[in-house]
Amino acid sequence: DDARLSQELLRMDGESYGRYKSLRGDWDFGDFTLTVERVQADPFAPPSRVRITVADLGVPESAWGDPVRRRATADHLCRRARRLLRGSLLRIDAGGQEVIERSSCRITEGGGIELRLGVDLPGRGRRIDGRTAERELCETVPRLVDGLDWDAVDRKEAVAFADGVADTVALRAALEDLGLVAFVADGAILPRRSGVSDEPLAEGAVPFSSPESLRVSVDLPHRGTVTGMGIPEGITLVVGGGFHGKSTLLHALERGVYDHVPGDGRELVVTRADAVKIRAEEGRRVERVDVSPFVRNLPTGADTADFRTENASGSTSQAANICEAVEAGSRTLLVDEDSTATNLMIRDERMQALVHGEREPLVPFVDLVRPLYREHGVSTVLVMGGSGDYFDVADHVVMMDSYRPYDVTGRARTLARERTDAAFSPPRARIVDPASVDGTGNRGRGRVKRRDTDVLVFGDSDIDVRSVEQFADPGQIVGAGLALRELVRGGHLDGSRTLAEALDRLDRALAEKGVLLLGTDFAGDYVLPRRHEVAAVLNRLRTLAVAGQR
Ligand code: ADP
Ligand code: MG
Q: Which 8-state DSSP code applies to residue 10?
């Protein structure tokens, strides 16, 4: 077949571009198969899609036998493929600093591999450039396959990569038994190169060093014993002067739900897998969320246990974000003063004296953060440099000073005052109307795509995802769109299950079948999203309708 493909491409040289369509189907190269899945209509259209299936690359079972190593080895080979394809028209989606299951690369049973790539089929104007196409498909592809053979791979590097991921996974798994919500290893590098680069700050980074009172040591399967700062369950307040590294620490915790590549600096910074960043998000839609713990007596008389708005304020949007996170199953909230609504966070005595009783519909988070933990097991890590109100409720207070953490819990206690908590009733669970999550649309023809990292296009709907901060990879935005579709298609949202129950079912299906469950018919790259981001895009879908609450 490979000789036949080569002849075919050379013969097509100079013909009209549309003739590329005849390439669709399987081409048997002997030790691998090249499948042309989709052909672009013209040279300027999104790339064509090809799949490369190698039955046996010689990857030993030790590198793919368990799900964690399988994900790591696939990720490592995917990054190697990206390097090998540099300068070619073939492109593979290999990710950034996180190691997350993606559609572009999968290790198969028996030590083979399946790669999904994009290729810009070359043209001269609207004519086929058959010679270049021949070089890409008949020379570059076989060279790629040779380069991924386990004999050609630096084994030490591959094993170290998988060991690193396995250690991170073990560390995160240890958190619960240790009574921690997060762990930041001594020596970790938290700051990033810039606001647009997720790579570690190259110069002048102060490595993390834990305060003795919060120091915890953990035994890991490969690295042995590591030490670092354990953030206990409960309420942890991060204080400190401006520019002393508070937000940088919190960002690292946000990303700590994912595993990182060796050299990232955050390999041993982990957070409970259910941690959700909470922020204000003025203007978002809210569909029948029970925000009554935070909001009562609105001037409009609206029922806040069944709250709906097309245009939430800063405070109500943040209240909805908290209640939705708890509804979707999060028991760890991450909050940064930089992105919160002040009136939902604090209320000082003078303001209470002036505006009180029925006139103030909001119950500030400071009065709810303790009952959230004590009665519902929801921990909070909160960055707050501008007010001491949270001294009253914090179990631990960490001060960042010149990028070093200090335990100042004792001193903060001496400044604390008595505070009466409000009551937190668990938010009512919503039952989503599956017909309202219709990604097909008339104009949309079932489109799922992203516009930059701002918008998820889902059928006819544009979902604003700019405030969904824990998308670590743009491909997860597409993955979340496909997961929405699967929630309905797979019968998980059936009009009687609650949203959390539907997400449980989807999680189980994904654990069993892998990320490809989401898009066997999808021509593009996508990355596994967490349930919390799937819930986040659902909650921001403007057509969402809730059939009832339980
Ligand atoms: P804060 O939230 O306390 O105001 P930030 O976390 O935004 O401070 O950090 C301020 C600046 O310091 C950022 O440019 C950040 O990259 C840098 N920075 C943070 N942590 C470190 C560190 N450990 N070493 C060097 N620079 C750091
Ligand atoms: Mg900050």
A: H
Ligand 2 centre distance from Cα of residue 164 (Å)? 30
**Angle at alpha carbon of residue 315, lines to 182 and 395, rounded to 5°:** 35
Are the beta carbons of 127 and 17 closer than 8 angstroms?
yes
Alpha carbon distance, N-terminus to C-terminus of the chain: 59
Question: Residue 239 has what pLDDT?
Answer: 98
Length, in residues, of the chain: 550
Q: Which two tokens stand for residue 274?
A: 């259910």
Question: Can you give the residue ranges of every domain in the chain?
Answer: 2-153, 275-414, 430-549
User: How does pLDDT run across 298-347, given as a tens digit for each residue?
Assistant: 888 889 999 999 999 999 999 999 999 999 999 999 999 999 999 999 99
- Which residue in 482, 434, 435 sits closest to 458, CA to CA? 482
Distance 246 CA to ligand 1 centre (A): 7
Cα atoms in the 13 Å half-sphere on the side-chain side of 20: 30
Q: How far is CA 403 from CA 117, 337, 381, 420, in A?
A: 42, 18, 17, 34
Predicted pLDDT at 357: 79
Pocket of ligand 1, beta carbon within 6 A: 190-191, 201, 204-206, 240, 242-248, 400, 403
ipTM of the complex: 1.00
pLDDT reported for residue 470? 98
Q: Which ligand is nearest to the CA of 335?
A: 2
**Would the CA dihedral through 447, 466, 271, 259 be positive or negative?**
positive
What CA–CA distance (Å, rounded) separates 229 from 404? 11
Q: Which atom of ligand 1 is nearest to the CA of 385?
A: 3
Q: What is the pLDDT of residues 162-219, one digit of tens each?
A: 999 999 999 999 999 999 999 999 999 999 999 999 999 999 999 999 999 999 999 9
What whole-number distance in Å separates Cα of residue 215 and Cα of residue 234? 17
Task: Dig out the tokens for 517 from the structure.
Answer: 């469950």
d(CA 387, CA 346): 8
Q: Locate tokens 């998988």: which residue?
A: 162
d(CA 511, CA 69): 15
- pLDDT at position 443 over 60: no
- Quote the CA–CA distance of 319 and 278 in Å, as a whole number: 9
